């Protein structure tokens, strides 16, 4: 009976994660391309996304409860859970798309301009294909982060109010609280098998397919096989078949799409049956895009209005709390302690780039290690916390740093790995034919190639680390609470647990100020430097 319940709970959790993933990718394509194309939009969107990715999932609890649970009574809790999963999966997708658009070689954009390509054509044939490798490489880590916060999404607790959904995250903590370790191990084994199946059937085919969209300066023989689940979905739906054939899924590797500069292109616009779309189909696609644009504008205005209305009161009250000198010093001290933990975790995480280099450049390591890494990265660290406490005791500082690392390190690995994978083959061949040493190859090719992705990885990793603090610094299992002495994650958790929204928002405001300062003084300059200096040009 318990096995049936676990399998059912696992299926529900997987469905929530999949829905959140699809919605996150769609949003990221719109937002990331807009930020990458338009300088004004970039100045607005990127700081906002950097702030939002750093807000712990608890910061979105009031919005989830107020908007979804109160206004959609039948499926409101489910919608709130999916919304909270999206808040943990979305941000690295946006940064990935943004970086991809910023890294497009200038000669391709110049050729598009000279060819009088429309905005829709640029999006369909340049921006989206450029973003696919980054999007696909970020799917495993987004899935992992969704799993990381799955328990928080399935058990929504704010003060004395608690909403609980059946899922693998909630059922795992229930089994631990009941002391049912035999069924707990069964849940872990089921989760492990589900991850193996997901990677074998979905993530691995996507990862192989993503290599078809990297820039090449010479033509190369590559397979264009689309993953089975995408092709099956397209074939089963005529509207999606028409749209994806011409807009969303290019059929060949992305590279120069116009013959010029004596280059043989390995990418051409997707083949079209009859070589031309009917006039009616063109008008239909244009109208769909226009309708979606207006729907997006209206949705953004409504969401912004509701958000401003909902948070204005708590923010004003939070400012009153920060005006008290003792409260201000206590919250600032908590932020400082959390920042030190993140700094220590970042120093420990940095060498992971060497593992990314090994996996990306060595075929044997790629075949052996990459599937193992994909599974390890996807296994949610919070589910291991009860076992870690059981085996090693309540060493809260060590546990906190380990949880921060587990919630952040794979951002760095996947972005570094993806950057190396996207190095054009002819450049790799030139390096192989040279007599450069391994250190020289790292300095002259691999490190410059991975630098844009590395900056993206550290931005999202640091944001993920701030987010992970609510799990790392305050661990509540049954009636026991294991927490650090000072930490902004602990402060937010304790405020949410007691229902003190004013203190919670005051802590979030202080953390947001620190994130904004980092964004303006460090990340923006690094991003501009990496994406402008280290991109492929001819």
**Low-confidence segments:** 246-277
Give the tally of β-strands: 4
Largest sheet: 2 strands, antiparallel
Instruction: Report the β-strand fraction as a percent range.
Output: under 5%
Order of helices and strands: HHHHHHHEEHHHHHHHHHHHHHEEHH
> What name goes with the CATH superfamily?
MetI-like
**Class computed from helices, strands and strand pairing:** mainly alpha
Annotated CATH architecture: Orthogonal Bundle
Average pLDDT metric: 76
Individual helix count? 22
The geometry reads as: globular
Main CATH class = Mainly Alpha
Please summarize what this structure is.
This protein is mainly alpha-helical and 538 residues long. The chain is 76% helix and 3% strand.
Q: What are the main properties of this structure?
A:
76% helix; two-stranded antiparallel ribbon; 538 residues; globular; mainly alpha; 22 helices; single chain; 3% strand; MetI-like fold
């Amino acid at each position: 009976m318990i096995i049936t319940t676990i399998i059912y709970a696992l299926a529900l959790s997987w469905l929530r994660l999949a829905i959140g993933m699809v919605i996150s990718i769609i949003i990221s394509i719109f937002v990331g391309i807009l930020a990458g194309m338009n300088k004004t939009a970039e100045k607005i969107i990127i700081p906002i996304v950097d702030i939002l990715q750093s807000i712990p999932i608890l910061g979105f609890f009031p919005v989830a409860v107020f908007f979804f649970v109160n206004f959609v009574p039948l499926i409101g809790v489910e919608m709130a859970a999916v919304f909270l999963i999206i808040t943990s999966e979305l941000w690295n997708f946006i940064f990935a798309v943004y970086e991809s658009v910023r890294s497009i070689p200038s000669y391709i954009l110049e050729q598009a301009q000279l060819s009088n390509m429309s905005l829709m054509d640029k999006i369909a044939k340049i921006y989206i294909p450029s973003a696919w490798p980054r999007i696909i490489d970020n799917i495993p880590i987004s899935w992992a982060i969704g799993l990381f916060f799955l328990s928080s999404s399935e058990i929504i607790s704010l003060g004395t109010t608690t909403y609980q959904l059946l899922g693998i995250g909630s059922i795992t903590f229930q089994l631990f609280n009941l002391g049912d370790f035999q069924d707990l191990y069964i849940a872990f084994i089921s989760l492990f098998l589900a991850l193996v199946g997901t990677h074998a059937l979905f993530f691995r085919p996507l990862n192989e397919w993503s290599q078809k969209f990297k820039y090449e300066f010479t033509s190369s023989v590559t397979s264009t096989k689309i993953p089975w689940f995408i092709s099956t979905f397209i074939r089963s739906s005529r509207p999606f078949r028409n749209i994806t054939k011409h807009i969303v899924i290019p059929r060949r590797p992305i590279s120069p799409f116009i013959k010029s500069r004596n280059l043989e292109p390995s990418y051409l616009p997707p083949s079209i049956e009859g070589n031309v779309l009917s006039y009616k189909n063109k008008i239909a696609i244009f109208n769909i895009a226009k309708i979606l644009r207006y729907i997006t504008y209206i949705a953004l205005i409504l969401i912004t209005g509701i958000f401003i209305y909902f948070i204005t009161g708590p923010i004003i009250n939070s400012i009153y709390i920060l005006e008290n000198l003792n409260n201000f010093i206590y919250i600032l001290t908590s932020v400082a302690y959390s920042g030190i933990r993140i700094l220590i975790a970042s120093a420990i995480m940095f060498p992971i780039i060497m593992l990314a280099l090994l996996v990306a450049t060595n075929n044997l390591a790629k075949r052996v290690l990459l599937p193992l890494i994909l599974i390890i990265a996807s296994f949610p660290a919070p589910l291991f916390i009860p076992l870690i406490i059981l085996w090693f005791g309540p060493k809260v500082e060590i546990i906190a740093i380990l949880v921060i690392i587990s919630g952040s390190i794979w951002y760095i690995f996947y972005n570094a790995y993806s950057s190396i994978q996207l190095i054009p083959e002819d450049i790799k061949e030139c390096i192989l034919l040279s007599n450069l040493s391994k250190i020289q190859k790292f300095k002259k090719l691999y490190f410059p190639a991975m630098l844009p992705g590395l900056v993206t990885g550290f931005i999202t990793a640091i944001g993920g680390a701030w987010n992970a603090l609510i799990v790392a610094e305050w661990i509540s299992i049954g009636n026991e609470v294991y927490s650090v002495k000072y930490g902004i994650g602990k402060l937010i958790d304790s405020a949410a647990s007691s229902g003190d929204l004013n203190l919670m928002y005051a802590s979030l405001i202080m953390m947001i100020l620190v994130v904004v300062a980092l964004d303006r003084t460090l990340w923006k300059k690094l991003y501009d430097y990496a994406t402008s200096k280290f991109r492929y040009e001819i």
